[in-house]
Design a protein that fits this description.
Length: 220
């Protein structure tokens, strides 16, 4: 169904305030935790739909950042990391953070993955296409795990597909929790078990094809 929401204009902003105050609809209502919140707004400029993740005091901490940084900053770094691997991810167009009286604000803006949809929403495929998709997904996440990276939230709604010339192209989204465990097999075990439990598209034979493709990409 075409997006009929009104456009906010033809030219997107290029600064923090412009994106933070951009008009739009909540795609994900603010999720409140502890002293902070995180939510996502969609806004259209011209022909392009943007996803605007906004956060306040929604922080992650590490040895490098003991006092915390917005999780939008971690997600931005993870997107850039997967882009270097050649894995399709949402394209970031703006990222920033700011400390205000309201708290530590985080902002991440990405372009819509045009033509993609979550495999959670795929149901009309024939047997051959399901097997083809399973193989493509296995290859993509195998490359992820070969780089010693763990998605950590690999649900079927976070694996996207777009069919190009009869072949599935895979993209990964929701990279906020991506991390680097020491052992690649631990990343693989966690993500594969998570995806298996949450997907409803593939049968046992399809899943076996996914695992075979994953193993080939992982190098096992």
């Amino acid at each position: 169904m075409p997006d009929t929401r009104p456009s906010a204009g033809s030219t997107p902003p290029n600064h923090f305030d412009g994106w933070w105050n951009a008009p739009g609809d909540w795609f994900e209502e603010p999720n409140v935790r502890r002293a902070g919140w995180s939510g996502m707004v969609t806004c259209r400029y011209g022909d392009t739909l943007y996803f605007i993740k906004k956060q306040s005091n929604h922080l992650c901490r590490s040895l490098l950042h003991p006092f915390g940084i917005p999780t939008t900053s971690r997600e931005y770094a993870n997107i850039k990391r997967l882009q270097k691997l050649g894995i399709t991810v949402p394209e970031p167009v703006f990222h920033g953070s700011r400390k205000t009286g309201e708290g530590h604000l985080g902002l991440l803006v990405t372009r819509e993955l045009a033509g993609f949809r979550a495999i959670a929403d795929v149901s009309e495929l024939g047997a051959a296409e399901k097997r083809q998709l399973a193989t493509a997904v296995g290859h993509t996440i195998g490359r992820l795990h070969r780089a010693h990276l763990q998605h950590s939230c690999l649900y079927d709604k976070h694996v996207m597909v777009r069919w190009q010339d009869g072949k599935p192209e895979i993209a990964l989204i929701d990279l906020e929790k991506l991390r680097r465990p020491y052992l690649a097999w631990r990343a693989a075990r966690h993500d594969l078990d998570q995806l298996r439990r949450h997907q409803k598209l593939w049968d046992a034979d399809d899943w076996a094809a996914l695992l075979a493709s994953h193993g080939a990409a992982l190098g096992t």
